[in-house]
Request: fold
Amino acid sequence: MRRKEAVDGYLFVAPWLIGFVFLIGGPMAASLAIAFMHWDLFSAPTWAGFDNFRLLLNDRLVGVSLYNTAFFTAISVPLNLAAALGAAMLLNLRMRFRSVFRTAFYLPAVMPAVANAILWFWILNPEVGLANSVLRMVGLPELQWLYDPTTSKPAFIIMNLWSIGNTMVIFLAGLQGIPQTLYDAALVDGANAWQKFRAVTVPMLSPVILFNLVLGIIASFQIFTSAFLLTSDGGPEQSTLFSVLYLYRLGFEQFRMGYASAYAWVVFVVILVFSLVQLRLSRSWVYYEGGDPR
Reply:
């Protein structure tokens, strides 16, 4: 019986295991090996040792791409969390047409990335775009948005706020899991709306906040599609040259596959360090009702 249960278990997880080996684990192992080689995709790879990693230290665009990505992450992730939590709290209230509003807020998250980029290309067009039309209506100076290095990264941050639907849904599920008795007890103690939010909502929602924070950081370091479609080469003045975009240019435009693989592992290590730091710091502010899961 135990053998049959084990076989059944492996059969159920076999699709995931096969997908992991061929689509994730296998390519990761191959990229680690390629990172120590010179390979242009057209000739046989040759051993390079640590040459690719040494070259990364002297590559100015590596620093530029990491800075652009870190800047985007530092501003975009907190704004997304705040916007998603605010939307979730509003959509958790009892109101008419609540399901319609929830659907409307979630729809941008399922919009195809290419369609989303095209939409924002027209919105941010400096001549006929909706953004500058609104600025003209309120008497503010028009901006060049994607064509000015000072506004290009803020433009991507605004674009990223458009797709808070997934984060909002997770926050909404977390809010619905908070016992109403805690709010009733806080109300009896005379707590106002802000005090209930600070003393009940945030502590009870802190594991969900941590989850969305870690996923948000990982996703922000993987920004590619919108930057590739809207700025292509990371312009203007390399201000939108994000890490994955530079990685793509190295591997599939310059055909420096070994160098690109080395940079990919640097980005992986950076994301891993950020995630581990967040998990470490979470011990001081994340509350688990059943006690510390450690």
The CA atoms of residues 211 and 285 lie 13 Å apart. The first strand starts at residue 37 and ends at 38. The domain at 51-284 is CATH 1.10.3720.10 (MetI-like fold). The longest helix spans residues 2-34.
